[in-house]
């Protein structure tokens, strides 16, 4: 369908969007037909069109358009409470590095991603502030078919931090890095184990062990704001934080957004504690356990007060 092809193009263009005048040539369709489809998508609030450079119309998917609050998340059950918080639009990323880079650069306004990723970008770029721990726990080791002491994980993630924290305990000799859960699962025949998150962890029918049984509870992900957005939108930030803290998890909504089965979500939710309370010192200690040596002074520049936004 022409509608699907347009949406695919807009998804690829993301924040850059596309001039409406470019679409007829790309899609080999008439200007009138494309205009008709775009009008329907605009009425459905799926796309946004605005004039640029005179009379030229530019088109974006709504979540990537200027003027809308952009919240980036990953495809994982740990964000179930956040996506249930209210009528917010979410951009789902494939990996934490791209998400947190976009947050630091101001392409998105709000991001939920692993603590370690947010700290690394926050220390380097000074443009994000962490306001809340979204959830704790929710990942573990699933054992593979080899005894080679190699474990697969994703880079700059809670999984990598936790593997490094238990490296000596488990006799881990090396890491293999993957960019997706599919890559991790396909590695099971070649490594001794993989570090993977929910709901994939619960769904795999193999020997496994949750990380919190090895090292205790840990923060898996945090909620951060681009500093420009944070200081321009105090009331919106307060509203989102309150919605997040008070929300009840909507299983059907989570299933719809992430395309996970409802029974998978219900099983995976047992692995988490949402909106846990952590002190700054607890997070500093967690980073040290994962082998990341950053001074408390540097770390303090990334964390807000875990309360109201500064005025």
How would you portray this structure in words?
The chain has helices at 2-13, 23-27, 31-43, 80-83, 96-105, 115-125, 158-165, 167-170, 181-186, 200-203, 211-215, 227-232, 234-246, 251-258, 262-269, 280-289, 296-300, and strands spanning 18-19, 47-52, 56-61, 71-74, 90-93, 110-113, 128-137, 139-143, 150-154, 174-178, 193-197, 208-210, 219-226, 272-274. The protein is α/β, with parallel strands linked by helices. The protein has 3 domains: 2-64, Orthogonal Bundle (Arc Repressor Mutant, subunit A), CATH 1.10.10.10; 71-135 and 221-300, Periplasmic binding protein-like II (D-Maltodextrin-Binding Protein, domain 2); 139-215, Periplasmic binding protein-like II (D-Maltodextrin-Binding Protein, domain 2). The strands form 3 sheets. It has a 6-stranded mixed β-sheet with strand order 5-4-6-13-7-14. A 5-stranded mixed β-sheet has the order 10-9-11-8-12. Strands 1-3-2 form a 3-stranded antiparallel β-sheet. Helix 5 (96-105) packs parallel to helix 6. The longest helix is centred in the first third of the chain and has 13 residues, at 31-43.
Brief summary of the model shown:
The chain is an alpha/beta fold and 311 residues long.
CATH topology of the largest domain: D-Maltodextrin-Binding Protein, domain 2
Give me the CATH architecture of the largest domain, please: 3-Layer(aba) Sandwich
Under CATH at level 1, the class of the largest domain stands as Alpha Beta
Mean pLDDT: 91
Distance from N terminus to C terminus (CA atoms, Å) equals 49 Å
């Amino acid at each position: 369908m022409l509608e699907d092809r347009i949406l695919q193009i807009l998804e690829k263009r993301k924040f850059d969007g596309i001039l409406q005048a470019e679409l007829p040539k790309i899609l080999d369709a008439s200007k009138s037909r494309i205009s008709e489809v775009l009008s329907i998508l605009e009425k459905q609030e799926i796309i946004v069109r605005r004039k640029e450079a005179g009379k030229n119309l530019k088109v974006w998917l709504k979540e990537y358009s200027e003027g809308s609050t952009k919240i980036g998340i990953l495809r994982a059950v740990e964000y179930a409470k956040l996506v249930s918080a209210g009528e917010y639009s979410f951009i789902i990323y494939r990996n934490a590095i791209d998400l947190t880079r976009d947050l630091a650069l101001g392409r998105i306004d709000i991001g939920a991603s692993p603590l370690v990723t947010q700290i690394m970008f926050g220390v380097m770029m000074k443009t994000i502030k962490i306001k809340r721990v979204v959830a704790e726990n929710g990942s573990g080791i699933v054992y593979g078919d080899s005894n080679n002491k190699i474990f697969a994980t994703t880079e700059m993630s809670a999984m990598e931090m936790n593997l490094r924290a238990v490296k000596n305990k488990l006799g881990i000799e090396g890491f293999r890095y993957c960019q997706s859960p599919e890559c991790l699962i396909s590695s099971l025949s070649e490594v001794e184990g993989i570090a993977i998150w929910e709901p994939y962890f619960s769904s795999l029918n193999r020997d496994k062990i949750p990380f919190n049984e090895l090292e205790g509870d840990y923060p898996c992900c945090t909620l951060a704001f681009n500093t420009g957005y944070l200081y321009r939108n105090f009331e919106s930030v307060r509203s989102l934080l309150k919605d997040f803290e008070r929300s009840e998890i909507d299983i059907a909504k989570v299933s719809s957004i992430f395309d996970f089965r409802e029974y998978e979500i219900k099983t995976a939710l047992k692995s988490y504690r949402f909106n846990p309370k952590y002190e700054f010192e607890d997070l500093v200690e967690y980073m040290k356990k994962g082998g990341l040596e950053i001074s408390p002074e540097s770390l303090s520049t990334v964390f807000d007060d875990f309360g109201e936004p500064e005025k």
